[in-house]
């Protein structure tokens, strides 16, 4: 089945036609590693995961990247303030980022380039821009002259007609609609500031330069798809586009731009001052299951604002239980004897299904996500079919190979959702195991009381790896349960 995606550059849905289906090149803006990713970031990373899973399910071979921004203003300021190296600041946050991805069953990509490992590529790109007459120097720093690039504004549709020539911006980030020449290479301003000695001078790259250079480093060309949050459309992606097209005017930098909308919390923008700022770990600490979180964050269309709330996590739990209960009913009819899901080729599943009712349901689910990753449409078809499945089981209408073909249907569904369990529920713990778990829970409570949060987090991770979910009640009591 063919895909169509809403291209931010054209402002319309377009058929997806990669230059090479056996090497679909996708680049996604990743984290700036100076803190835990908040759930708005997490939603964007899950959107990338759904895109990957969807394309894989249709047989595309992917060559996919997500960058790690490990040098920018925030990181340098933290480095100077704490008297630590940039590497010491970013290493634990980079580790936490990958732990969060694994926790939410986000598939690994082919490349995770780091900005600090791509300095030579950035310098090369600046040289090419200089050669093409798009760079000027001021006070030792190098700037991109956006008035000299005729295509500036065509991605974000920003109006540059009223901008004043030579108005510059040195910050890595700036306000929306603030149209200025942006810095490519910053000269070192203080001894404590991380810098590199290059033929551009002693300094460091501007944030916007990094992604353009890393794309060139990984692919040696442009890409089929570039993704990111809608907040990156301007100025970051506009500046990326200007840099890459300015350096290589003969090439198309990006064929399709995909942007994920904002996440709100209870209808408001997430903010620490409002008390509605959540990281993934904050929510797990409240006792919610990682599958609930994943399901909720992927269940809305990526181009729609997602209004997050704890109440919606409860709704997600109920939806998951409805899907899982039906799947277990099917598996029980087979006594859990079927082909190992890890060995099933997703692209071959449709050929295995002969029952027209099941095949039609699978096609409906598939047509939803092929239409610009419309998961609400796919999930709507899933729940309609779940109703049909249970009605037919109540009437003993599923016969012969139908049960196995229903399992194939759910394997296909979960290749996109990544939240279902195809195994028998684990047996209850022995008394010895329960005592060990209770001991760890008590140790964690004592660690938190003594403000040894590192040990408390370590214990929680140990228990989580064993399928134990912790729930801290308002009364200060910690409860636990087996969740996988």
Describe the protein:
By secondary structure, this protein is α/β, with parallel strands linked by helices. 44% of the residues lie in helices and 15% in strands. It is built from 15 helices and 17 strands. It has helices at 39-57, 73-82, 86-103, 119-131, 207-219, 233-247, 280-285, 290-299, 310-333, 349-352, 356-370, 375-394, 402-417, 431-449, 453-465; strands spanning 4-7, 12-15, 24-28, 62-66, 135-138, 141-144, 168-169, 181-187, 196-198, 201-205, 223-229, 254-260, 263-265, 268-269, 306-308, 468-472, 478-482. Strands 5, 6, 7, 8, 9 and 10 form a six-stranded mixed beta sheet that branches. 37% of the residues are buried. The model has no long low-confidence stretch (mean pLDDT 92). It catalyses: tRNA(Cys) + L-cysteine + ATP = L-cysteinyl-tRNA(Cys) + AMP + diphosphate. Belongs to the class-I aminoacyl-tRNA synthetase family.
